[in-house]
Amino acid sequence: MTTKEKLITTASELIQTKGYYGTGITEILQISGVPKGSLYHHFPNGKDSLIIESLKYAKDKELERYKKATVGKRSTNGILQAIINYLADELVESNYEKGCPISTVALEVASTNENIRIVCSDMFNQVQNRLAALLRILKEPKATEKANMFFTLIEGGFLLAKTHKDVKYLRNINHQIKHLLQK
After folding, report:
1. Is the pLDDT at 180 greater than 80, yes or no?
2. For position 93, which CATH number holds?
3. Is residue 12 a part of any domain in this protein?
């Protein structure tokens, strides 16, 4: 793993549990074992540019996990339920400590850091567009609208599940999928 990759993966892990403000440069350097000069060599704009790259990495990693979770699923309902179940299982496995890093950062800095807000918005759009493309492949009518509704349910359910330390808020979405797909 390169020095840059160490910084990105370490920052990605930390923002997933601690968010933007809870993740400090000193801690990133300490955990990654990378010297401070290397951080600014790879990320001349400092923390914000590292966080942006870490968010991109986290998004790509999460999309890859969704893909693995849905292998063998042939119906829209089956795919969406597999994503929900994957998220719920991951949340329990992390003892409710890990969240969606994009959501975590967006909630913290969207009103104070326009550059990161734009990046988070773009990443959310990428995930929604990927989901809509999948629904179109499955010949789902109103694929974009349904993908956006499903994604909104996921984000809200994930936030509530993490806050209440109860995955029922995510798993309840499985019962709503049938109604979502009928619209």
Report:
1. no
2. 1.10.357.10
3. no
